[in-house]
Each structure stands twice: as structure tokens, then as C-alpha cells.
Amino acid sequence: MLGNKLLVLLCVVLLFTLLLQNNYEGNVEPASISSPLPPKDTKYLADVETETAVPLPIHTTSSLDNPACDWKPGYELVGTCVGTLKTTSKSRKVTTAEGCAALCCSLPVPTATSGAKDDTSYAVQDDVECIAWQFRSDIGCQIGGDHRIGMEKDGPGSWCEKTAPSPWQGHRVAPKNRQESCAGTTWNNTLPGQCFGFGPQKQIQPDTAAQCRKECCADAKCETWQFRDDKGCYFGGKMSKCEKGDSVAMSPFQGQRKRLASRTYEPPK
After folding, report:
1. pTM higher than 0.70, yes or no?
2. Closest Cα to residue 191, out of 142, 241, 151, 144?
């Protein structure tokens, strides 16, 4: 008797389950096939008409290696440049070396039609033409015309150091206390950043910081001296400017210049 009751109960439960399943399938819309997730290196833009997500690939090719820019191989602009590189309205918005390279790459080289005598002209139009760029966190992105590097003999007057910045030894000779500034065998290295405007390197013997200081003190017109092992001795009167000597200012720049057909890039013979 008990077994018959259990059998009837199981039949009722099975029938109720079948009725629920049929009702669910008849009232629910078929599920749409979802699109696979886009790769992580894509961005999205909402399409106003379809209201769907359209994947936009991120540009991952480095502008520093972009062959379309025809960057001059060899020395990069790692050293201090004295010339036409400057911050412009467009370069001011750039925050990376790659972005600075991309900006310069997008701007053409000066041509005769734009008023330049030839493609070595450094009188580029701001944000219209570009031959060289340079970037460092403290100065941001600077762009401009062509620059020579190191001892290259041809090209414009604009010029860049061949080597990255590194600390100098140097000191200003106080005009009112000249004797005190030149006395003794030690001094304070108060000019670790490179100064400009001294003219050519001084030929001294021995080629040391101590001798450089001695030669400056022997010259009544000398106000400042600087020495670096790989650069030698420089001293003189008024200077045009001196770089900062902090850790950032002593770090290399990033920079490149476009290859120009009119240049040989040869050092002096």
C-alpha cells in the first residue's frame, strides 16, 4: 500500500516538471550569441547609429624606429643642443619621447617652396616643419631644424654635444675676493652643469682641473673655469648660460634628426 502511494507521488512530480519546462521554452527569447571579447590592446568608440562597440587598435609601433620618418642612423641627440630646438604650441602638449618623435615625423622637412635655401635650413616654421627633436622629462619635447653633432663639419650653425651630460668641475672666481678665490689647493665645485660661451678648449699642461683653475687665476679677465676629463679645460669672462647640475640634468636626452640628402655628415679631415 505504501509502495503504491510513493509511485503515484513520483509520477505527479515528474509531470509537474515537464509542464514547467515547456512553459519556459515557449515564453523566453532565444539567447543571442555574444561576441568574443576584443583583445586588450584595443580601445572602443561608441557608434552612434548602431550603439555598438567598435574596436580601435592602439598604435604600438614606436615612432623612434619608424622607417617612414627616415631618421639619420648613428649618433642620436643624447647631448646638450645649442641651436633652434624649442618648445612650440604643439610640442608643449607632448609628454613622452615617442610622442615627440611622432610629432616631428608628421611635419615635413623645409623645401625651397617653403622659403628655405635648402633642406639644411634651420629656420623651420614652428609646428609646420621639423628636422630634429629632443626630449627629457625636465624640458619636455622640443623640435626644430637640423643640428650638427660633435665634430661634423657640414650643416647649420646649430650644434649638439656628442656625449650625454655628466658633471663638471668648476668655480666662479669672485671679482672682489679674487686672491681668496684663487688661494689654496682646494675649491668648491659649484658648477657641475656645463657652461657655454668660453670659446675653444684651452691647451694646458698638465691637463687637469687644478691646472685649469691655476690658468684662470693667472688671467685677470677670467671669471669662471670648468674642467672635465673627457672635455678638457675651459675658462673665460662672461658666459651665455650654465646648465643645472641635478641628477635629471645630468641624464641623457632622447632625440633624433631626419636624414638630409644635401649633407655628408663627415667630421673635419
Report:
1. no
2. 241
